[in-house]
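Good day; I would like, with your permission, to put a structural problem before you. What I wish to show you is a protein chain and, alongside it, a tokenised description of its three-dimensional fold. Please examine both parts with care and let me know of anything in them that strikes you as inconsistent. Thank you for your consideration; the sequence and its tokens are set out here:

***
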Amino acid sequence: MDYQTGFFYLFSAVLLFAAFRVVTARNPVHAVLYMMLAFSQAAAVWLLLKAEFLGITLVLVYLGAVMVLFLFVVMMLDINIDVMREGFWKNFPLALVLGGLVTAELAVVLWTGFPTLTLNETAAASAMHMPDHSNTRELGKLLYTQYRFPIHIAATVLLVAMFAAIAMTLRARKDSKAIDPGIQVRVRAADRLSVVQLPATRPAATETVAEEVKS
């Protein structure tokens, strides 16, 4: 076994562990951190497969921007973990069915391979691994010609997820101490300050002091 195969098994093992911890971590912040670890290991695997454009894009876009944004959003949401765990066993059968369905689909794809791959696509894939050929250019041709419709769907899903994250951070909270700026601008002095009239001098309570001294 050469060193590339050893690194592949190492990165794959860490990737599987991180992906498992994303699902099983009780703290959402820890889950996001494990997801960032999984993305970094996936980028390393892509670099070993000579898909450097995908690996660098994964690090720059997801680790450098998207996952950092998710981390800040999760930390600002102040999620109540106890409330989230109440419906775990209630939704567990549905999650188990969906997980089994996704696993079966992945097994079928890996077992059957890609029999519909045409000769031109095979030649383009082999040309991407040539040292004097730009795989980024060939990847761009495939993404924006043959696979433009799935790219549009993925972009729409990411846009909806971004809107949902922003909407969750803007929801009204009863325990928030934030003050509306409009109320601060429209405030009047009479609402904040009350003037109390006090006498300038007070007579000395001589009789009371004398009684206290005698006692």
User: Anything to note?
Assistant: The chain has three domains: 1-79, 85-113, 115-170.
